[in-house]
Design goal:
alpha+beta, 10 strands
Length: 367
C-alpha cells in the first residue's frame, strides 16, 4: 500500500482510544505506519538491491519489534528534549509508545498483504512472498474514505472518534467486498478461457487462500506436444473492484483475460456461441538453455526471487550473444487495457545478456 494511505490510516487510528494513551502516541502511530518502508535506503546500491531488500526484514517479525522500539525511542527522546507538555495530558510512557508503535508497524504489514504486490511476512527467516490479491497497490476508495473521515472529522473528540470508527468500518467493508469479488473472478475462469484451459500440471492444484512464491518445486511437465495449467490468479485493477485481470500460467506461456463482474452475460447460463476465450492475450514463456544460464546470474536470481509470474523470452544472435528478458505478468499491462498487445517494457522487467564465452555482458532492470 502507498505511504499516503498508511499516513491517513495512522491519523485515523490516532482518533480512536489508541491515540488517547498519552502525548506522543499520534506521532508514534504516524511514524510507525511508514517506517517499514525505510528499506528504500537499499536503492542507494541500485534498483536490483532495492528489489532484493524491499518488503524484506523491515516487514517481518524483527521489523515489528525492532522498528517499534526505534519509533518509540525517537518519539520519547523528542518529547524529553523538547520539554513541551500539554495541559491536562501527560506524556505517554516509553512502554506505551513501544506498544503503540509495534501496532502501527504490524498494521502497515497487514495492509500490504492484501495487495497484488505482496510482502515477505516472515523475512529474514523465510524469504517467500505472500499476497491475497484483493487490492491494487493504490486503492482510491481507501484514500477517499480516509481523507473524508479526517477532513469532516467533527469538532469534538467524541465526533472524531465516531467518524474514525465509521471509516474503519468502511475499510473493513471494502476489504470484504474485494475478497468476495476476487473469489467470484476466479470462479469465472473456466468460462473465460473455455476450451483453451488445459488440465492442471499436478493432480492437486493450488487452493491456498494466501498466495506464496517463489515455488519450491517445479510442476510436473506435460507430455511432449502438450501443455498444462500451473496456476491462475485474479489481479485487481485501479479503477473498480468489479474489474479483474485473470493471469493463467501455462507450462509454456501466460494467458491474460479481463473480466467485468457486472457484465450481464455472467448472470445468464453459458451460450453455445459464447467465446470469451477468443479475447485472451497470450504471452510466451519458453525456458531455453540461455534462460537457464541467465537465471543463475545475480540479477536473474534477484528478479526471479521477486517476480511471481516471470515470462521469459530469449534470442541468440549470429555472434552467439544470448539476450534474455523476463517480464512480471502481474504488471505487464499496467493501466493499459489488457485487450491491447504488450509492446513495451515495464519497470517490472529484467534483461540479461550473456556472451558466447559465458561472460555476463549486461544486467538491467526496466529496459
Amino acid at each position: 500500500m502507498d505511504n499516503v494511505t498508511h499516513t491517513l490510516f495512522a491519523a485515523t487510528l490516532a482518533r480512536t482510544p489508541l491515540g488517547s494513551a498519552g502525548r506522543g502516541t499520534t506521532a508514534a502511530l504516524v511514524i510507525a505506519s511508514n517506517i517499514p518502508d525505510i528499506d528504500i535506503v537499499s536503492a542507494a546500491g541500485g534498483t536490483a538491491g532495492y528489489l532484493r531488500w524491499h518488503r524484506g526484514p523491515t516487514h517481518g517479525p524483527l521489523g515489528v519489534v525492532g522498528l517499534g522500539l526505534l519509533t518509540a525511542a525517537i518519539v520519547w527522546s523528542w518529547m524529553r528534549w523538547s520539554g513541551r507538555a500539554d495541559a491536562g495530558r501527560a506524556n505517554a510512557s516509553f512502554g506505551m509508545l513501544a506498544a503503540v508503535s509495534m501496532i502501527g508497524v504490524l498494521l502497515h504489514i497487514l495492509m500490504d498483504l492484501p495487495t497484488s504486490y505482496g510482502t515477505r511476512l516472515l523475512s529474514p527467516f523465510d524469504w517467500h512472498w505472500y499476497a491475497l490479491d484483493w487490492l491494487p497497490i493504490i486503492d482510491i476508495y481507501l484514500l477517499v474514505a480516509l481523507a473524508a473521515g479526517l477532513i469532516f472529522g467533527g469538532r469534538t473528540a467524541d465526533a472524531r472518534r465516531r467518524n474514525a470508527a465509521f471509516v474503519i468500518a468502511l475499510m473493513a467493508a471494502n476489504y470484504g467486498a474485494r475478497g468476495i469479488a476476487h473469489h467470484e473472478a476466479l470462479a469465472l475462469t473456466p468460462r473465460l478461457f473455455g476450451p483453451t484451459l488445459p488440465p492442471a500440471c499436478d493432480a492437486a492444484p493450488r487452493t491456498a487462500i494466501v498466495d506464496r512464491w517463489p515455488r519450491g518445486a517445479a510442476p510436473t511437465p506435460p507430455l511432449p506436444g502438450r501443455r498444462c495449467l500451473v496456476e491462475i490468479a485474479a489481479m485487481p485493477t485501479f479503477t473498480t473492484p468489479f474489474e479483474w485481470r485473470i493471469v493463467a500460467e501455462m507450462s509454456n506461456a501466460y494467458e491474460i483475460h479481463g473480466v467485468d463482474l457486472l457484465d450481464a452475460r455472467f448472470t445468464q447460463p453459458p451460450l453455445v456461441s459464447e467465446a470469451f476465450w477468443r479475447q485472451t492475450i497470450r504471452y510466451p514463456n519458453i525456458w531455453t538453455p540461455p534462460v537457464e544460464r541467465a537465471a543463475a546470474t545475480r540479477l536473474g536470481s534477484v528478479f526471479l526471487g521477486f517476480s511471481r509470474f516471470p515470462a521469459a523470452r530469449s534470442f541468440v544472435d549470429a555472434g552467439g550473444v544470448a539476450t534474455v528478458r523476463w517480464t512480471d505478468m502481474r504488471f505487464a499491462a499496467g493501466l493499459v487495457a489488457i485487450e491491447q498487445p504488450i509492446r513495451r517494457a515495464t519497470p517490472f522487467s529484467a534483461v540479461v545478456r550473456i556472451g558466447a564465452d559465458g561472460r555476463v555482458l549486461e544486467e538491467s532492470l526496466g529496459r
